[in-house]
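Holo model, S-adenosylmethionine. Inputs:
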Amino acid sequence: MANYVHGFDPIEQLRLKEQAEFLAPMVYKEVDFGGCKNLLEVGSGVGAQTRILLEKFPALQITCVDSSAEQLAQARINLASFGDRVRFVEQDGCVLDLGACSISDSAINKAEGASSTRRSPICD
Ligand SMILES: C[S@@+](CC[C@H](N)C(=O)[O-])C[C@H]1O[C@@H](n2cnc3c(N)ncnc32)[C@H](O)[C@@H]1O
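Output:
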């Protein structure tokens, strides 16, 4: 995904982290994944939002999907402390194929509907 508009350099990766932390009180003010076990995050980048969600909802397990190996490599580092609560899939979210996994078909169907213009977490 070489044509991603913001690029993947370390300054941009840090910007994503700072942006997520700054916006978290507003973004997650009315978001409650307390009743969810598994969450699918398409376009998860370096895991900046993922970290906030994992901290906010301790029962949640998150599957991070990103088409960039560089972003996922940084996400693995950033989220290492969460162990098996997070897994990483390098794939184009527009043609998502997670194979056999614990996320329900309905969640995957919703994910397939999430185009690159609307990257949002999906849970069951
Ligand atoms: C602006 S970053 C956002 C990362 C994260 N959601 C956050 O807020 O910190 C967008 C991410 O979407 C990924 N992306 C763009 N198009 C994608 C696609 N079709 N499938 C999977 N990932 C995609 C990029 O590689 C990038 O890491």
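Residues 114-119 have pLDDT under 50 and may be disordered. Residues 10-123 form a domain with the Rossmann fold fold (CATH 3.40.50.150).
Archived with the compound record.
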